[in-house]
Automatic annotation (TrEMBL):
Name recorded for this polypeptide: Tc1-like transposase DDE domain-containing protein
Domain of life: Eukaryota
Classification via InterPro entries: RNaseH_sf
GO terms, molecular function: nucleic acid binding
Length: 75
């Protein structure tokens, strides 16, 4: 399959970054080291089920991109 340029629909890490951002929103850090520690903790708390669901959604995502001819999808 030819990969659509700039397709966030097929880039699962983007969805994980969004989840990570939700986890740390509103949490203040006094310095970069503290923020890094907060991000590491939040990353470790992302449920494996979320990662598994994202991976299992790839066939649907690919089909949605094909059906939309590379235009945005619901993902």
């Amino acid at each position: 399959m030819e990969w659509p340029s700039q397709s966030p629909d097929l880039n699962l890490i983007e969805h994980l970054w969004e989840e990570l951002e939700r986890c740390v929103t509103g949490i203040r850090a006094q310095n970069a080291d503290q923020k890094f520690s907060q991000l590491q903790t939040a990353w470790a708390q992302i449920p494996q089920s979320l990662v598994t669901n994202l991976i299992q959604s790839m066939p649907r995502r690919c089909q949605a991109v094909i059906d939309s001819r590379g235009f945005p999808t619901k993902y």
